[in-house]
Amino acid sequence: MHQSPVQEPPLALLFDVFGTCVDWRSGIVRDGEALGLRLGLRGVDWAAFADAWRARYQPQLDTVRSGTRAWTTLDVLHREALEDVLDQFRIDIDSADRDALTLAWHRLDPWPDTCEGLTRLKRRFVIAPNSNAHIALLVDIARWARLPWDVVLGAEIAHAYKPDPEVYLRSVEALRLDPSQVMMVAAHNGDLLAAARCGLRTAFVPRPTEHGPGQTTDLRPEHEVDLVVTNFVELAEALGA
Amino acid sequence: MHQSPVQEPPLALLFDVFGTCVDWRSGIVRDGEALGLRLGLRGVDWAAFADAWRARYQPQLDTVRSGTRAWTTLDVLHREALEDVLDQFRIDIDSADRDALTLAWHRLDPWPDTCEGLTRLKRRFVIAPNSNAHIALLVDIARWARLPWDVVLGAEIAHAYKPDPEVYLRSVEALRLDPSQVMMVAAHNGDLLAAARCGLRTAFVPRPTEHGPGQTTDLRPEHEVDLVVTNFVELAEALGA
To answer: Do A174 and B156 touch (CB under 8 A)?
Structure first.
């Protein structure tokens, strides 16, 4: 809950992506609404649809974390979860439209401060996503949202999902740095707690509308972090970039 | 030796880096000369030194390719080879200077057309290095030479060295593409031959001074390739980017 004094700046910054860099909820709503308009679907609450889709995410990852299922890409998991969500909302669309809607996760807009902050941070630090998404999905999001990554790291390299320590440690290893030279940036307490336990430094950036206007979780840090800032531009300021 | 007609453009381009994107020889000469000036080393032919250093590269990789040695980073291989080269040139410098000189491989300048070509190509295609260098080295070169990669792929992901097919196939897999949707760009016939055998498309970009003014190898394609261009800007033109 408290903030430790800032020491030497890190050499590299790792970023959570869904929620921290990009606004997944609005992106899914936008593509859902466009699909609804095209197909004449009426009365669908696409925000509730997006929340229901995302709600299946952590239970899906748990099947891999527990070893029940082999590591797989989020494209596969998103597509599987979509089947359930469509049933729940009593929406029937054909297979091509299901495939297309799954790709909504590749077209997510950044938060207003994301690109300016990353561009400034990149001048001084190596910046990379450390996400549960696979490489191809992160590349598409980066190209869509203009996220100027130096390198794409994360779950695919480790064949594990956060908060498994392997994801943090393999990303740090790929940079040939010590964990203490790397800072994890995220809007999620669980992500930062796991990173800190691996020896990384941590920055909490709240994204208070990630889950919509009524969000009650991850509004503030719940564990010791090295930095708390309100957005990526403030993060650049705080780190002298 | 002949060029097949260009079909559909690819979706992603993979690039060899040493020699194809950056001029390693001039970079090593520059840092060698600076070191010589600082330490008062006289009469060193730094171009010959650079060539001797690079000449140890393929035999070193062969020890990994043959399974004699576990996969390792070029930082380790460059540092080991440096010991031999310093002996050969009867140069004695301390360990800190040896470490510093090894990092010359992280500070290599692009060819004059590299950045403009890559920037144009990135508008239309996913672009990534597919090099024998490890990720951290490729990140440093990209930041030094301003190479705007979408993602860093190559030997470290495969834990193999080109021309082992694994390097090409794992890079293609990371992009979730088919080999036929990916084009390998290189100044080296061996690299392109191996890529073509994996089903990738190929573009030959000669770098006739990579090995200095008297270069006799890799001046032209020696196998069938999809494209031959003289530089990366021409490559962008040829691919409509």
So the answer is: yes
One domain, residues A65 and A125:
no
Chain A residues with CB within 8 Å of chain B CB: 73, 75, 126, 134-136, 138-139, 142-143, 149-152, 156-157, 174-177
Strand A227-228 vs strand A201-204: parallel, antiparallel, or unpaired?
parallel
CB contact under 8 A, A142 and B150: yes
* Residues of chain B in Cβ contact (below 8 Å) with chain A: 73, 75, 126, 134-136, 138-139, 142-143, 149-152, 156-157, 174-177
Distance CA A63, CA A59 (A): 7
CATH code of the domain containing B208: 3.40.50.1000
The model's pTM: 0.96
Minimum Cα–Cα distance from B176: chain A residue:
A136
- Residue A138: list chain B partners with CB under 8 A: 151
User: Mutate which of B135, B170, B175 to disrupt the A interface (most A C-beta within 10 Å)?
Assistant: B135
**H-state helical runs in chain A:** 24-39, 46-55, 57-65, 74-88, 95-102, 114-124, 135-145, 155-158, 165-174, 189-197, 232-238
**Substitution target from B76, B105, B124, B151 for chain A, most A beta carbons within 10 A:** B151
Q: Total structural domains in chain B?
A: 2
B42 CB-contact burial (10 Å; exposed 0-12 / middle 13-18 / buried 19+): exposed
Q: Are both B136 and B86 inside the same structural domain?
A: no
Predicted confidence pLDDT, tens digits, chain A (241 residues): 445 554 688 999 999 999 999 999 999 999 999 999 999 999 999 999 999 999 999 999 999 999 999 999 999 999 999 999 999 999 999 999 999 999 999 999 999 999 999 999 999 999 999 999 999 999 999 999 999 999 999 999 999 999 999 999 999 999 999 999 999 999 999 999 999 999 999 999 999 999 999 999 999 999 999 999 999 999 999 999 9
Mutant choice from B127, B131, B176, B182 vs A, greatest count of A C-beta within 10 A: B176
| Global ipTM | 0.95
Domain range for A29: 24-106
